[in-house]
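Hey, can you fold this one?
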Amino acid sequence: MKMVGLIVNPIAGMGGAVGLKGTDGRATLAKAIALGAKPVAGERAKEFLRAFGALARTIEFLTCPGEMGERVFAELGIACRVVGGRKGETGAQDTKLAAKAMEESGADIVAFCGGDGTARDVMDSIDQRLPALGVPAGVKMQSGAFAVSPGMAAEIVVKFIWGELPVREAEVADVDEEAFRDGRLSSKLYGYLTIPYEPMAIQGMKAPTPVTDEVDENKKALGKWIAENMEAGVIYVLGPGSTVKSINEALGIDFTLLGVDLVADGRLIRKDANESEVLELTSGKPFHIVVSPIGRQGFIFGRGNQQISAAVLRRSGREGVTVISTQDKLDGIEVLRVDTGDGYADTMFRGAIKVLVDYGVFRMVRVA
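Sure. Predicted structure:
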């Protein structure tokens, strides 16, 4: 019987919907809770485990006490063996000890449910001695060690333990969260994990935006076209990133580079809004969402813009969303992706979608 380890970071992703762009540090976690943040990693772990279906009975799962894994197994009625970690308040050291315990117990692979910080902790513990795989539950997930969704993570694990997939190195990267909250994206490569290689199911490391005159002019053209075609009385929910913020620049109004801004009738009505504010300010009013995909990864929702949640997308519908991208960025993306954790919202965008790539120019792109 193959052994699969699962480590759950209980606080991963809690800072996303409330606009904190991460949950590193106790002070940030306390602020997230005060703003009404809810745990998300446990539900993502359940999604991962459910995807095994009847095959779960053929696998020996190793996990950690309490919220670090044991609880989700108990709630799903799936057998597991607790080998590391602790109950109650946990931290990075608990993740490291758990990964080490799973290695010593003979696990064939360690799955970790969290974000980039969790990936770093697992890497620090087991390095590349044991294959690992990220189940996406964080806010940013710049690293290339994550599956594109919890369900796909389970599929990768099954194929790997059946001997159907090779392994390869995957980058472990993370951002400086304090700089990120201040609107500065400072990402650093920390090292590598060994992961099962399934290229269409692994999200890859985020690609940086090239700084060239051509790309800059492309962004300005996108911002100008959207600004000129905004409808009176409609609230525009503008996602993170320099591509979308070219709209604010075209309008001559303030913005938060890595947050979500709400604009109506040429003026800023809320800067750096969280999910609750987006829902409140758009309630009963016409609104439209504008987002840009993450370079190389292709995500339009579910990575770095959790403020535009499934609840918001259920209100807007597919027709209430415009995707914009520079041609250079889109050339490096095979498919667009959505991973909000809500089945209805995720499937809403499946198929082909129009992407604005220049002034009045659209391309049809597939959403997986």
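The chain has 13 helices and 16 strands. Let me know if you want another pass with a different chain boundary.
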